[in-house]
Amino acid sequence: MSSPSINAERLLRRLAAFASIGATPAGGVNRQALSREDRDARALLASLGHARGFSIHQDEIANLFIRRPGQDDMLPPFLIGSHLDSQPTGGRFDGTLGTLAALEALEAMEDAGVETNRPVEVVAWTNEEGSRFSPGTMGSMAHRHGRVPETWASLTGSDGALFAEELAATLKALTNAAPRPLGRPVAGFLELHIEQGPALEKENIPIGVVTEVQGTRWLEVTITGQAAHAGTTELAYRRDPMAAAADAMHHLFGSVMPRDERARLTVGRVAAEPGSVNAIPGAISFSIDIRHPAEAMLDALERQVADTCSATADARGCTVEIKKLFAMAPARFSEAMVDILEASAKRPWHSLQAHDFGRIPRRAPSVPGRADGDDFRALP
Questions:
Q1: pLDDT tens digit string along 5-24?
Q2: d(Cα 109, Cα 122) in Å, to the nearest integer?
């Protein structure tokens, strides 16, 4: 057995090949979940794994697994990977880097003849982004709970496509993948991810170890007023939901994140009805994404959003309705896993041993959902 070594040229070549699937003029990718482009990327990943003699599997939510057996193949596998779907204007490394780096780790172990005590599997989770079909993290969520919620079957995508039909087509398209039950036990999960903020790059730190994932809630706010003519309706007679929405956003943007550096608030989607240039809209709908590593603070932020939107709507003679579209609790990651990653990251590259992947302590938890977060331990 030789020392395993990553083939950087092979990894970069594959990253370029995947970046061509759904490539955008700006250099990124548009490869939304369960789309034709997503199926093409899944097929390419499966073919690469199959060419090396690894077994290929997918479950009923189309999570894709590439398995390298261990000495005791009955032990729960250790998973490494990420996702292949993207936002409409996604970056070429978002998700793909973690998935292809995981495959490269498997190939490095295979090239060096390394034996692990348990199986190691690459996983590409389905619909991590949630841009075409909501909610996001569908694949890891279904894996954790061991079932696909019945309500997902009737979901309609942002392009009008039916989730059930697109999922069936995606499963059918991958002919070389054997079906497997949903939610099988795992020893642990590791995801390499490109930094999604500027902190590490700004400090010239090459890598960080994530210690927890933020909790997330998606809200849909609808403020209803009265449609009226833009030119003839004086201020005193206006019940303008756009003005109420702008007031609410201004207050929230000026208070939530400035008062708590760990809080996140984003308005990513706004729609006006009827959407005419020369008419006061009858209703405004907008999304709010709130995040925080503490569950109690998420509750407080959700109340703040509701109170603020209600107050601004009342002041403008409007009404408000708020729906919760998605909720994911915060999660702390295994201290044992964090310690292993920190120790490995601090060791010289030539001393890393790939069989460490197969020696994760048995107490390591099953995958809690998303594995990338915003709170990390910086490493020199």
A1: 889 999 999 999 999 999 99
A2: 13
